From TrEMBL:
Molecular functions per Gene Ontology: RNA binding
Xref: Gene3D superfamilies: Tetratricopeptide repeat domain (1.25.40.10)
UniProt-listed PROSITE patterns: PPR
Any coiled-coil regions, as ranges: none
PANTHER family: DYW DOMAIN-CONTAINING PROTEIN, PENTATRICOPEPTIDE REPEAT-CONTAINING PROTEIN
Protein name as catalogued: Pentatricopeptide repeat-containing protein
GO biological process, one term: RNA modification
Domain of life: Eukaryota
Length: 203
């Protein structure tokens, strides 16, 4: 019976998380909260379930509930990524930076998703110095060649008004596509370098 209840709870969480289009409806938020209240009472504390619940709250933009879940269990890299993404999504860059530091203090290794969230946070905060440190860390891990990573680094430097850094990253790209060009042009546009925007556009 215990195992049966565990399976039913697991299926319930997966079902609700899968309803991405409807997850912002209040009824789905309440359903998710009810299921997690059962999980938190000891029926199941498997990390994968916790991560699914965090994904659900991410879809609902429910930061307070997500933080409650996050702080009630020992997080892994996926838990950190989920909660950092939510903070970045809701424009709480300082908390994202704080979580990034805590993640490393816990001895966890940042992955692509982690770096994407922290770069977005640095860009929103115009935290150029922190952004450079993160970029250096990304380069050391060899993730700087990833397409989405390069685009996000360029975007971060653009938002920090560090256009020379943005352009250096762009120039080092082995392949430049629409996404990388858009990130570069966006940085110059945000900083009102209209002449450069036109030059790039008609290049």
């Amino acid at each position: 019976m215990y195992c049966f209840r565990k399976v039913k709870i697991y299926q319930g969480i997966l079902y609700i998380v899968s309803c991405n289009n409807a997850s912002k409806e209040k009824i789905w938020l309440l359903e998710g909260m009810c299921i997690f209240s059962i999980v938190s009472k000891g029926l199941d504390t498997v990390t994968v379930l916790v991560n699914h619940v965090l994904r659900f709250y991410f879809a609902c933009d429910s930061l307070l509930d997500a933080m409650q879940v996050f702080e009630s269990h020992k997080p892994n890299i996926y838990s950190y990524n989920a909660i950092m993404s939510l903070h970045a999504k809701l424009a709480d860059g300082n908390k994202t930076l704080e979580l990034f530091a805590k993640l490393q203090d816990d001895g966890l290794m940042p992955d692509i998703c982690t770096f994407l969230s922290i770069l977005n946070a640095c860009g929103k905060l115009s935290a150029a110095c922190k952004g450079r440190l993160v970029h250096h860390q990304i380069t050391e891990t060899g993730l700087d060649t990833h397409v989405s990573m390069s685009k996000t680094v360029i975007d971060m430097y653009g938002k920090c008004a560090c256009l020379s850094d943005s352009h250096k990253v762009f120039d080092r790209l082995s392949t430049r596509n629409v996404v990388s060009w858009a990130a570069l042009i966006s940085g110059y546009s945000q900083n009102e370098y209209v002449e450069y925007v036109l030059e790039f556009f008609f290049f």
